[in-house]
Write a structure and sequence with these properties.
By secondary structure, the protein is an alpha/beta fold. The protein has 2 domains: 9-184, Rossmann fold (3-Layer(aba) Sandwich), CATH 3.40.50.150; 193-247, rRNA adenine dimethylase, C-terminal domain (Helicase, Ruva Protein, domain 3, Orthogonal Bundle), CATH 1.10.8. Helices cover 33% and strands 21% of the residues. The chain is built from 10 helices and 9 strands. Strands 4-3-2-5-6-9-7 form a 7-stranded mixed beta sheet, with helices on both faces. α4 runs parallel beside α6 (147-155).
């Protein structure tokens, strides 16, 4: 196995049982089309290609790209060289399933990028640092509940599938990982996306303050009243629907 590169936050998955469990969680059927985020040296890719899936793999590491080209030529693999954060999923001919062992240091930007393309994704099976998964699945009033939670839960049903120990990787990270499944919601509450995100980010930027203070200059007393939101409460107490209702007053 090639040496992992710190600049790409690489931790190569090597546990065959975990690999098979992740691929099985994708619910791949005949003629499924899959996008793999950061395939590295192909641990998941190899297992995916044993199914009937066509795989589009997006990789930024040139050494990994050379390896994949050498080892998977002539297969149902389409390799895209570049940063997933720059990739427009609308270029895909039809909705795909998404899979990936995400780099810890940029997992949140990747999640926000995926969120932009909910209409292009059938489902997403992702491995993340366990703490990030806890934030994604958090409920109002808990310490893990924050801007990532609210932003992603607006358009996605999110389910934690299982935990993965450090021993499943080489090199071993210092933290546990978890695998989650994201499925686009069928009925998304109507709201202007930019206004919603601006409101959520502002509210949680000062999460210890009341909404009145955290959103000063953005939300008026009349708008709080119109949305039936108590301005002396704090951001972590509001549900996703509460934020939608408040955003729709802006």
């Amino acid at each position: 196995m090639p040496k992992a590169k710190k600049k790409f936050s690489q931790n190569f998955l090597q546990d065959s049982g975990v690999i098979e469990d992740i691929v099985a969680s994708c619910d791949i059927t005949d003629n499924s089309r899959v996008v793999e985020v950061g395939p590295g040296y192909g641990a998941l890719t190899q297992s995916l290609l044993r199914t009937t899936a066509h795989v589009t793999a997006i990789e930024i590491d040139k050494d990994a790209i050379s390896y994949l080209r050498a080892h998977f030529s002539g297969t149902r693999l389409s390799l895209v060289e570049g940063d997933f954060l720059d990739y427009d999923l609308k270029l895909l001919s039809k909705p795909h399933k998404l899979i990936g062992n995400l780099p810890y240091h940029i997992s949140t930007p990747i999640l926000f990028h995926i969120d932009r393309y909910s209409d292009c994704i059938l489902n997403a099976t992702l491995m993340l640092q366990r703490e990030v998964c806890d934030r994604l699945t958090a409920t109002p009033g808990t310490s893990d509940y924050g801007k990532l939670t609210v932003t992603m839960q607006l358009k996605w049903d999110i389910e934690k599938l299982f935990d993965v120990p450090p021993e499943a990787f080489d090199p071993q990270p210092k933290v546990w990982s978890s695998v989650i499944r994201l499925v686009p919601r069928v009925n998304v509450e109507s709201v202007d996306q930019e206004a919603f995100k601006r409101l959520v980010f502002a509210a949680f930027s000062k999460r210890r303050k009341t909404l009145r203070n955290a959103l000063k200059g953005l939300v008026s007393e009349a708008q709080f009243e119109e949305a039936a939101i108590d301005p002396i409460t704090r951001a972590e107490r509001l549900s996703v629907s509460d934020f939608v209702r408040l955003a729709n007053t802006l």
